[in-house]
Amino acid sequence: MQIVFSDIDGTFQEMGHPIHEINKEAIRCLQAQGDHFVFVTGRGFELVQDMMAEEGLSCDVIFGNGAGLMVKGEAPVLTHTLPYKTLAQVIGILETEAVFYFLHTDHGIISPQAHLYEAQFQESRKQLLAELGERGQIIADYKYEFFYNECLHKDDVLQFMKEHPEIKVIKIELMEASDEKRERLRAMIQSETAAIFQSFVQTLEIVDPLATKGAAIRSFLEAFPAAKSYGIGDGENDLAMFEAVDVSLAVANASPAIKAVCDRTIERAEDGGVGRFILTELVSREDVVHEVD
């Protein structure tokens, strides 16, 4: 049996681009021959569920960078979430440093009032335009819409969480345009109870130290001891996945540091690199509906 573990953002789907049709075809062909495809993502399970429903996909999902597992056809299960004590420590630092943040929870996405961080959003937009051009504009527009309209805004996030202990926090995500400040935040937040890493442009994520893609994949693979495993990613949070699989692959749009430690590099996310690899090398030819061009 073959099992393909794939990151979503920047790997299976490029920001600002639709999911390549060949990626969706590859999942169906892989599953048709009895193999597994598993999304391994920093997204919360609701965002992944919405994406799969919209795209007509169905597979297992490791979400929240390993905080939970959603087996195909079953309800999602959270395994490693952030306790209130850790929330208090991290949020205290972020609010003192005036950094915008949001919580991915099992009750949606919670953030402070977005308008208080307007200057930070505009600085982020300026940096994205300078570094990425038109693609940066797309990312900035998406983030702006998301922060203002998709988050549940609270005047006092920490107090709200204290009053609602039933809400489980999968991860804390923060946005900061300054490279220097992001590195300073890393040093301030990293601890025995909080793991921090960069997941996307200008973005850091904080999770429970046991909520890693690598730990979740190792647990998943216990049920398939004879399987050959592949891990496909593009970012720092995928390094733990690379260590847990038999074959690690980075898409060509990954950073040089990520490509330097993987076994192989495949085509870019926007060109359907995940699907082209699967259809070319892992799927029997009779199962391929369309030729890989």
How far apart are the first and last residues' alpha carbons, in Å? 26 Å
The CATH class assignment of the largest domain is Alpha Beta
The count of helical stretches stands at 11
The count of β-strands is: 14
**What is the mean predicted local confidence, pLDDT?**
92
What is the number of independent domains?
2
Q: What is the global morphology?
A: globular
Indicate the radius of gyration in whole angstroms: 19 Å
Task: Please identify, by name, the CATH architecture of the largest domain.
Answer: 3-Layer(aba) Sandwich
Main sheet specs:
8 strands, mixed
Give a quick set of tags describing it.
293 residues; alpha/beta; Rossmann fold; Hypothetical Protein, Haloacid Dehalogenase-like Hydrolase, Chain: A, domain 2; 2 domains; eight-stranded mixed sheet; six-stranded mixed sheet; 11 helices; 22% strand; EC 3.1.3.-; hydrolase activity; HAD-like_sf; HAD family hydrolase; HAD-SF_hydro_IIB
